[in-house]
User: What shape does this take?
Amino acid sequence: MQKEGGEAVKDKYWAVMPCLLLILFAFVFSNLFVFSKGIENLQREAVLKGHAEWVADQSGKPQFKWKECK
Assistant: This one.
């Protein structure tokens, strides 16, 4: 049953909004996760090949650092 002034059409769009927000959240979260895993893999590979190293900063936490070019 349609209400006056086309309110049924508005209700249809509001029903779709939670699904779109969930899809957007999943897309953003998955991209952030994949990006951080890619950075970790890049750092691990650089250390294994000898192009970079892990050094301790002033507070003693490990910090990724590229080696100087020769």
The longest helix spans residues 7-49. The mean pLDDT is 87.
